[in-house]
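Minutes, project check-in
Item: structure for the 324-residue chain
Input as provided by the requester:
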Amino acid sequence: MKHRRLGRSGLSVSEISYGNWLTHGDQIEADAATACVRAAFDSGITTFDTADVYAQTRAETVLGQALTGVRRESYELFTKVFWPTGPGENDKGLGRKHIIESAHNSLRRLGTDHIDLYQAHRYDPTVPLEETLRAFDDLVRAGKVLYVGVSEWTAAQIADAVRIAGELGLDRIISNQPQYSMLYRTIETDVVPTSRNLGISQIVWSPIAQGVLTGKYLPGAPPPSGSRATAAGAGFIARFLTDEVLTAVQNLRPIAAEAGLTMAQLAVAWVLQNDNVASAIVGASRPEQVKDNVGASGVVLEPELLARIDEVLASVAILEPEGG
């Protein structure tokens, strides 16, 4: 397993990280989740990503249990704050009250005394950015959070956060967590260039496009039973389940075979060719899926092969930011 520095910070992360958005506490039981986490460690993964809102907070609890007994210094633990975790008006967003209380709750569920990377799960236009950044900075100064990042922020929002942190002497963000895959490339337009200039890395989610890039979804056929398309989060995958997209994905098979990779490995290796990507988050419901994905670490895809991928997906890849 290769490691990369996260932004201009001193934090190294595994090129492939393990995430439990649609698995722990939801799609799979605790025993299976623990088996996947152990497989991740055995495969060299040291970076684990979750969020307080996943499975209505159960995902953090399951991950914390799976990490029990593991030397804390041997892994990097990431979580997030923003989405509602309770019925109250202050149980959501990026106001100071919700950030501080959510951090304490996440620490308790995860069974740790610090979070390596605490991320703003979305941008909150209803709260002054200064308040959000100062709350994060307070957690860093208290030693409860080591680094801060964001998720799915625009280039302008990222730039504003860095500028304000500089003006106020606050801890600056070091990462952004966007969706990114061969089929969904919107960050390449503005987010990646801005982030690169500011010393911020991407930790990308859905590099396999919710499983579509494994090739298991076939044009004209119903989704396999128990797949992401039939489980929680199915709305995220719907845009890719057209016959046009699924046919194009099948045309990637000979390219993967030529590279000596599985389809999933080709997809993960592809996002890691972007030098602004520090880590690709993969999820799994079975240990063998983790082991397969890890085979993408350290893979170098030749320019000719990358060009062929672009040609195959030219008509179906989403290139422009949504709404813009």
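Outcome recorded: The domain at 3-209+274-298 is CATH 3.20.20.100 (TIM Barrel).
No further action items on this chain.
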